[in-house]
Amino acid sequence: MATDSTGTDGAGRQRPIVIVGASLGGAKAAQALREAGFTGGIVLIGAEHERPYERPPLSKGYLLGKSSREKIYVHPPEWYAEHDVTLRLGTRVTAIHPADRTVSLAADGELAYSKLLLATGSVPRRLPVPGADLPGVHYLRRVEDSDGLRKAFRPGARIVVIGAGWIGLETAAAARAAGAEVTVLEAAELPLLRVLGREVAQVFADLHRDHGVDLRFEAKVAELTGTDGRVTGVRLADGTTVPADAVVVGIGISPDTELAEAAGLEVENGIKTDEHLRTSDPDIHAAGDVANAYHPLLGRHIRVEHWANAVNQPQTAARAMLGEDAVYDRVPYFFSDQYDLGLEYVGWVEPGGYDRVVFRGDPATREFIAFWLSEGKVLAGMNVNVWDVVDPIRTLIRSGRTVDTKALADPEFPLGDL
Description:
By secondary structure, the protein is of the alpha/beta class.
């Protein structure tokens, strides 16, 4: 149904669809446009010199050395030319001009667009203490960051991880697998406390302790210390210093909204969009980590910092840019792998937004399903080393029905019958 009649520039040339962010989301948007039948120009712009790749392997298989570098890429190198997608790597967009429908490029002037998709993703939060810029301090966002960690993670190396979120715990597991000595420093009382709540967070504290990780909670970092210009330790507010050959900082990410803000788009915890992933400018859409999108099922705006959004939102954005009444209402999903524990989480729960957790199976065995409920309705479910249950959990969430909690907790009662 797609058409090429998406507007021309001042010289009468057809304006392309421009995608800012040569990321997983950006590449998937280009693919979705072609699959929808769009035959006009597509320009995919990225500041990195690497062609679009997936980020989960950077803290999982690739970091562990279990998967090759080639497997992280979204498409083979020839895909872009074969699908007539202009891939401009190492190119930085410096400004968006919605009135003219152009973007400014750092290197060579302006580029006109018919529709614009912002898939600018997010950036790691920096550690705001003295010494945080010392060599040997690592953040994990790009493939070269993962390469640096692979070199740092070696037998006997003293690795300090600051932050016990998903990235912190996954890198801690990778460091232990490499034979390093690992200390994790977390400001909260338990890992993943805001995400999972106390009932489930304890599972991950026990998991990492059982694998030899030194977990220190309610730890406040005061300074990173160094010798000869390289990090050698982490000094805590209580005066304790934890020796370190390398430090990994995983204290969260922030949506990369700088271009959107300067362009006057509505920004609130990301680029605010409607259910069609359309921003406050009708010719500009946003997808992935950076999009704070209205979710029809949940009745509110949410921003999800996970792989599934980067894979699926671009399909909706592409169709919407081509004039379809496409709506993004998928239930949020993410996964994690740590040691011999694999999990999938589906749903959405704000911190403190539930009144009960129901377990199907024993958490101590690390083979269970946890359900977060509010007023008897399932808001989210997480399966740990239990597989092929995401679809019935998702159906439970979408139904919005009150469930029988005894049946929910009974492993013998089919989830599909609930």
